[in-house]
Amino acid sequence: MTSQWLYRALEESRARGFLGPVAIETQIEHASGFRHVWDDITPTPPAQFLDLGSGGGLPGLVLFEYWGVPATFVDSMVKRTSFLEETMQWEGAPSGGMVLNGRAEQLSRDHDLEGQFPLVTARSFGPPAVTAECAVRFLAIEGVLIVSEPPNDDDPDRWNPSALGQLGLRSEGRVRHGAAYQILRKIRPTPERYPREIGIPGKSPLF
User: Fold this and answer.
1) What pLDDT, in 10s, does the model give residues 73-85?
2) How sure is the predictor about 43, in pLDDT bands with cuts at 50, 70 and 90?
């Protein structure tokens, strides 16, 4: 059952233009798919997680409420991180939420964030190559990146195995829980050169 806090946060996010016009219940269901993917991997909630490009709060707010574990929300837009900080102060909000404004290329090199997360989630962050490169340094070894995929999940070339290997990632396939989700696991340390400087992953993608 959706808490009053979560429903209020998502309604306000939509009112401010951070979420699309789709029904809140549908958006919660899609966000919950990330949890179902994690549950397929292990029955134990992650010790903590990071939501990359949190935007209007999906899937991060839904997972934060459900698991109640420390959650880090990252976005480069001040108005969106300001909104997420605001929701953390509302009555009924879980404790342990941290909101960071900045670019992933820089934040992932912060000592307190680098290699710390067993789970990173990404919904509409960017193309596959950009998402992988910007997420990888946040992940602990054996940590998992779960990415929301387009409705048509039949393209075998979206995630290039060789390029992922350069980052220290391995694809573990695409699954469906209503929507489609890609699973990537960090299997070895990421070379120091990744992620590249701000904007370079998008301007010159690895694949």
Assistant:
1) 999 999 999 999 9
2) very high
CA 164 vs. chain centroid, Å, equals 17
The residue ranges of every structural domain in the chain are 4-203
Residue located via tokens 């698991």: 67
- Rounded to an integer, what distance in angstroms lies between the CA atom of residue 31 and that of residue 157? 25
Looking up tokens 């710390």 gives 116
Could you say which of 3.40.50.150, 1.10.443.10, 3.30.750.24, 3.90.400.10 is the CATH number of the domain covering 4-203?
3.40.50.150
Tell me the backbone φ, ψ of residue 127, rounded to 5 degrees. -60, 160
Q: Which two tokens stand for residue 38?
A: 């994690």
Alpha helices in 23-67 (DSSP H): 24-41, 60-67
- The answer to whether 143 touches 119, Cβ cutoff 8 Å, is yes
Q: pLDDT, tens digit, for every residue of 168-202?
A: 999 999 999 999 999 999 999 999 999 999 999 99
**Residues 6 or more apart whose Cβ sits within 8 Å of residue 188:** 141, 168
